[in-house]
Design goal:
Layout lengths: L7 E8 L10 E7 L14 H8 L15 H8 L3 H15 L7 E5 L6 E7 L3 H19 L6 H15 L3 H12 L4 E3 L5 E4 L6 E4 L2 E2 L4 H8 L1 H10 L7 E4 L2 H11 L3 E5 L9 E4 L2 H14 L5 E5 L4 E8 L2 E14 L6 H8 L6 E2 L6 E2 L7 H9 L13 E13 L6 H14 L3 E8 L6 H4 L2 E6 L5 H4 L9 H10 L8 E5 L4 H14 L4 E5 L2 E4 L2 E3 L6 H10 L5 E5 L2 H6 L7 E6 L16 H8 L1 H4 L1 E10 L3 H5 L7 E6 L5 H8 L3 E6 L6 E6 L2 E7 L6 H13 L4 H10 L10
Parallel strand pairs: 15-16, 20-24, 20-25, 21-24, 25-26, 26-27, 27-28
Antiparallel strand pairs: 1-2, 2-4, 3-4, 5-6, 6-7, 7-8, 9-12, 10-11, 10-12, 13-14, 13-18, 14-17, 18-19, 21-22, 22-23, 28-29, 29-30
Helix pairs in contact: 3-4, 4-5, 6-16, 9-10, 10-12, 17-24, 17-25
Length: 724
């Protein structure tokens, strides 16, 4: 036991896939609450008041009561430290910007003070840190000690910002989630796989696997981009490529003042100076552009009167548009330009240092463009403007005002054409016009830049106007009506599961699908044994999901894997459970009965898709009980056609597979209700239960009886293992 009134975290496990708690990744912590077992919250004076004061957001936690304020009701009436810690950890994650809501806490045994607590987390390191911080916070509240919540939240927020997906990538992933398309994060950054196996697509923020390196190269070459876009009739500003300040001034005079200078190979608007009319301004702007670019080449362009706009093109259409506005401050005769920016611009709650903020902080002492703009007004960041004096800080900054509904169809068509000409499937089109609701030819507007990997935040969190869920358009562009899923068969149980998994994989393979298999015998792709290379069972399964060549997968998952890692996949087309038995090897997980083992193995049925099928052994009563848990169809199989579950299923007109013994040649019958669809010979080389499970799974996948029969005849129960 721990010391009196303390909480000790005994074990922490990250369950990376569906598990006994929920469908999503969770952190499972084993707790010893020691003497606190005798002190529920209603016997800890002042705890309710202190906890609700420091974490007022707990009021929205529903808990088991199922309504707003549910947890606080439990806290007031009396609940135990493990359950309280669960909610504290969830709230800390929410405060740090990583929204989560699921948690459960269960006692281990009776009057032991030992608990298992699980809570949802979107990032393991953040979740572990929140657990440690939550334990310290709760103990401080129990002991009536001070706790620095602000410092904790700041630290967790920093972790969220550095370790979790960025807002643009997160929006796309969330949009995929709404479509039930699974995702796998491939790196610590924003490279993400949407979908599984051969059905997958990959994104890197707003780039996709369809984004070609050639198109990116063209987009980074501003002069070439203008040439290609102009050749298709898209209006662009007249310009010239120069390599010296003197040449820039000569070009400016030829083009006609005022002009714009920008890096030849720049991006994201860095190093761009607008509305230049003097030789000194042009020279200074040249130096800035050359510094920001990767070469000394700088583009001089005609300055177009109007506001800057960013149009987001996905596929062949504009899905969002944002307009810019100029930034000004007003002097008070006392404050410097730097101070005025902090008090008049940077106090806007939409401005911040991280990607979560739609607008960045304005730094007139650091931004080269602002420094140049101030110089043109004979000012610096330290200058003190007179009271009432208007100072232009940034012309056409703040491209974060939604104008999607105002875009003229001709303007949208020009933007989409520019993206296609460059070759980008997703592009940010920068254009300047005085009125986005009129054709460019009427306003004298022009497209000034085509950007690969455009930022999405201005559309997701505009400073003004309607937010646009652009991730939906990107997912639709990548998948159309597809689900991103390949056929997955999951199988669990003790007896015959491995042989059934191998036979199912063989049936899929001869049906023409390149099939991956992970089971107790090893990791296979189309029958070839691959090295495991020290990977865990979960990691081995994920290798199949990552493999672009794999068109179908069969995954055997033991009870131990479900308890220690979770399933490797989120959902399956077919879930097979062979039996509920042999819990003796799971005592370290406190699985001491068949009922507790049932709660582990039911996970396989819980993850069957609504369009999928659970294949269940009719001879095992606890497996039969899992039928009610399935969101899809159920096929029962059994060695005896008189089994109660099979007879009842047939009475309901549903599918069954059973062995028929006729004294001479045992056979396997596939039936729908009372109608027998076909009869197949039983192989003497494979245990009947394994054959029945495999046939039922193959039938569930839509394989024909003829193909299943061919698979039974050609299956090698003892293949030679060949490493590749």
């Amino acid at each position: 036991m721990t010391k009196k009134k303390d909480i000790e975290v005994l074990r922490v496990t990250h369950l990376r896939g569906p598990n006994i708690w929920t469908y999503r990744p969770v952190i499972e912590a084993w707790l010893d609450i020691g003497e606190l077992e005798n002190f529920p919250s209603n016997l800890l004076p002042g705890l309710y008041e202190r906890l609700t004061t420091i974490l007022p957001g707990l009021i929205v936690h529903r808990c088991g009561v199922g309504e707003h304020g549910g947890f606080l009701e439990r806290l007031r009436d009396g609940t135990y430290a493990g359950h309280i810690l669960e909610h504290v950890v969830l709230e800390l994650q929410n405060l740090a910007g990583m929204k989560t809501g699921f948690g459960k806490t269960r006692q281990i045994g009776v009057d032991t003070g030992l608990y298992k607590m699980a809570f949802r987390t979107r990032q393991e390191e953040v979740g572990r840190a929140a657990l440690a911080a939550g334990r310290d916070l709760l103990m401080a509240m129990i002991d009536d000690q001070p706790y620095d919540l602000d410092a904790t939240v700041a630290r967790l927020t920093d972790m969220v910002e550095s370790l979790c997906l960025g807002p643009s990538t997160g929006n796309i992933v969330d949009a995929a989630g709404v479509r039930k398309i699974p995702f796998i994060r491939l790196t610590d950054g924003n490279l993400v796989q949407l979908g599984h196996g051969a059905a997958q697509r990959r994104i890197w923020t707003a780039e996709t696997e369809h984004t070609s390196a050639i198109a990116e190269g063209i987009a980074s070459d501003k002069d070439l981009t203008k040439t290609l876009v102009s050749s298709c009739g898209v209006p662009v500003p007249q310009g010239e490529l120069v390599e010296s300040a003197a040449a820039a001034w000569d070009a400016a005079q030829d083009i006609g003042l005022p002009v714009v200078l920008k890096p030849y190979d720049g991006n994201h608007g860095r190093g761009v100076s607008l509305n230049l009319s003097t030789e000194a301004d042009v020279a200074a702007a040249y130096a800035l552009a050359a510094k920001e670019g990767d070469s000394s080449s700088v583009i001089v362009e005609r300055f177009i009167v109007g506001d800057e706009h960013r149009l987001l093109v996905v596929g062949r259409r504009v899905v969002a548009a944002a307009a810019g506005e100029s930034l000004w401050v007003t002097g008070d005769g006392k404050s410097s330009v730097l101070e005025l920016c902090d008090t008049q611009i940077n106090t806007d709650p939409r401005r911040g240092e991280t990607e979560e903020f739609p607008l960045g902080r304005v730094k007139p002492n650091e931004s080269g463009e602002i420094i140049l703009e101030l110089q043109r007004q004979n000012l610096t960041h330290g200058s003190v403007p007179a009271e009432g004096q208007k100072v232009l800080i940034q012309p056409n900054g703040n491209v974060a005002i939604d104008v999607t509904d105002k875009v003229h169809p001709q303007v949208a068509a020009m933007a989409a054409l520019a993206a296609r000409v460059v070759g980008l499937d997703i592009a940010g089109i920068d254009l300047v016009t005085s009125d986005i609701s009129r054709p460019l030819e009427e306003t004298g507007g022009a497209i000034i830049e085509v950007n690969a990997s455009p930022g999405l935040l201005a559309h997701l969190k505009p400073a003004e106007g309607e937010a646009r869920n652009v991730g939906v358009a990107i997912v639709e562009h990548l998948f159309g009506e597809a689900t991103g899923r390949m056929p997955i068969v999951g199988i669990t149980g003790k007896h015959g599961a491995t042989m059934a998994a191998r036979l199912i994989a063989w049936l899929l393979q001869i049906s023409g699908k390149k099939t991956g298999l992970t089971c107790a015998d090893g990791l296979f792709v189309n029958g070839r044994l691959l090295p495991r290379d020290g990977f865990s069972d979960w990691e081995t399964g994920e290798r199949l999901l990552l493999n672009k060549n794999v068109e179908a997968g069969v995954f055997e998952s033991s009870a131990r894997m479900i308890l220690s890692e979770g399933l490797a996949y989120d959902k399956c087309a077919v879930g097979v459970v062979t039996d509920v038995s042999d819990f003796e090897e799971l005592s370290e997980f406190h699985i001491e009965s068949l009922d507790k083992l049932y709660n582990v193995l039911r996970t396989q049925v819980d993850v069957v898709l609504p369009s999928g099928v659970a294949v269940l052994n009719a001879a095992d009563p606890q497996v039969v009980d899992m039928a009610d848990l399935c969101d899809g169809e159920v096929i029962f199989y059994g060695v005896n056609e008189q089994l109660a579950a099979i007879a009842a299923h047939r009475q309901q007109g549903k599918r069954v597979v059973f062995e028929r013994k006729d004294g001479q040649q045992d056979s396997i019958v596939l039936a729908v209700g009372q109608e027998e669809i076909c009869s197949l010979p039983l192989s003497p080389l494979v245990p009947p239960e394994a054959v029945l499970a495999a046939i039922a799974a193959g039938w569930a996948l839509g394989l024909t009886p003829e193909l299943i029969g061919a698979g039974l005849r050609t299956f090698d129960a003892n293949p030679k293992r060949i490493h590749h």
